[in-house]
Amino acid sequence: MPRPGSSRAILEQGSYRAQTGAPRGTTALAAPGPWSSARNRPIVVGRSRRKRWAGLDASSPRALSVSARIGADLKAQIADGTCPPGSALPSTRALAAELGVSRTTVTAAYDQLIAEGYLETRPGGRTRVAAGLRPDPGPREAAAAPPQRLSAFGRRILAMPPPDDAPAPAIDFRTGDLSGEDFPALAWRRALNAALLRRPARLGYGDPRGLPELRAALQAYLWRARGLRCGLDQIVVVNGSQQGIDLCARLLVDPGDRVVMEEPGYRAARGVFSAAGAAIVPVPVDADGLRTGDLAAIGGARLAYVTPSHQFPLGGVLPAARRQALLDWAEASGATIVEDDYDGEYRFDARPVEALLGLDRTGRVIYVGTISKTLSPQLRLGYLVVPPALGAAFAEAKRLADRQAPGLEQAALARFLAEGGYERHLRQVRRRNAERRAALLAALAESFGPAVRVEGAAAGLHLVAWFPQVPAGREAAMAAAARAAGIGVYPVGPTYHEAANRPDRAGLVLGFAGSGPETIRAGIRRLAAALAAAP
Ligand SMILES: Cc1ncc(COP(=O)(O)O)c(C=O)c1O
């Protein structure tokens, strides 16, 4: 009869006991009991000096260190009651000898479990399972677990239509994607390297509004490229437009507030305001963007979200008279305007139009800019220009959201902007995207002729292809037929807030910045063939 608590006792009690079926020359050790199969893999110890461990595979998540596996098995035995609270463990020397591992390995396993509170030890005493631990009753039936109570915000976002997360098809016309070939990898690496080599003496949190040198570089860029004058304190660097819009909603919108949105409009912005509990007030757009004449009938709106330089998705550019009407309405109704200038850098028939912010004399406009359309949506960098009176609120909201945008990328962008690399890159991508746009327009004309009418191609990186003879109800079937042929196209319907506002003909939103001209041509030919063959 072995002494209680000796390694032999633990082994016989089932903690580490030989099992049959182990490879020759090894001893398989595992704990019995109602373990899950993942836990119940035997540990196999070689009898030779070279130890071998079953399941120890560097490419698998089981690639735990030996001491981690001993620890995991001990935890499992504590959980299933094999090692009850207060029971003594074998000495590290005894268990190491029994398992054929070094004593250091077992000591490391014990130390880790002591640190986690599973084991206790007293000077001169045996290591024991911590008193007061309760055996784990095992995974609870999902159905029996009480549902977590979501906040009103959580309930609102779960009630929204699910995002389209389908894997990308072979040729994808998704808006927002850029071609990987356009990314200026060498220039960006130089900028990142330079930022890395600065090696600050201390690593700490910075100004939540962003690195001062990036804000200064953005200030100069906005003046050069968009004719905008603003103070440094008005610029807040954010993680893409999306965060900028989210901060606007947090700071300016209470549940029940009315928020004017373009109809159709940008779903990701609508999602933010809906999640904040806003009452969305859709205002129709036409070929010139928001129909500002319709605003007069809207009283008490708190905020309006607009894309005046290139309406998303229909592509209209808001003319000067409508810009003035929009600003006048905002002033009269006390509303704030969020101007999303997401792709204002791309204008194919003339110079980029002036930003709405440039006309704002009363501090009502929040300007949202991004590098997602010029450098990469993966960098997650954008910026806000906020009215001076809102600077402190935005700085604090950004600090509470995530402290600050990533410093290294900010420093790289600051350098890229200040040294002229950004604008050199812009000239290149403008040219390439002009070629892609021309390829798309020619391919649509060639494959569909008068069966397609193109809207909104004068600016930006997408257009809308309307199919006047196809009823709107066919949009989803068109997208599905295209996807079956390996082509990603996106119906215009879901960009409408209210189904009743959808036009009766089908339309597809086609982004063209993600692929080269040849791929675009091939994609449109395949699209035409797939639609022609669709039932
Ligand atoms: C209307 C609009 N705003 C903003 C963005 C960019 O968002 P972000 O800067 O968060 O990447 C896009 C991207 O497609 C967009 O379509």
TrEMBL record:
The question of whether Cell membrane is a record keyword is answered with no
Leader peptide range in chain numbering:
none
- Entry-linked InterPro entries: Aminotransferase_I/II_large, HTH_trans_reg/aminotransferase, PyrdxlP-dep_Trfase, PyrdxlP-dep_Trfase_major, Tscrpt_reg_HTH_GntR, WH-like_DNA-bd_sf, WH_DNA-bd_sf
User: Which SMART domains does this one have?
Assistant: HTH_GNTR
**Domain of life (superkingdom):** Bacteria
Supply the name of the protein.
8-amino-7-oxononanoate synthase
Query: Does the keyword Cell cycle feature in the UniProt annotation?
Result: no
UniProt lists the family membership as follows: In the C-terminal section; belongs to the class-I pyridoxal-phosphate-dependent aminotransferase family.
Q: Which UniProt keywords apply?
A: Aminotransferase, DNA-binding, Pyridoxal phosphate, Transcription, Transcription regulation, Transferase
Native organism is: Methylobacterium terrae
Q: Which GO terms describe its molecular function?
A: DNA binding; DNA-binding transcription factor activity; pyridoxal phosphate binding; transaminase activity
Give me the ranges of the annotated region Disordered.
15-40
Q: Which residues form the HTH gntR-type domain?
A: 64-132
Pfam families reported for this sequence: Aminotran_1_2, GntR
Which Gene3D superfamilies would you find in this protein's record? Type I PLP-dependent aspartate aminotransferase-like (Major domain), Winged helix-like DNA-binding domain superfamily/Winged helix DNA-binding domain
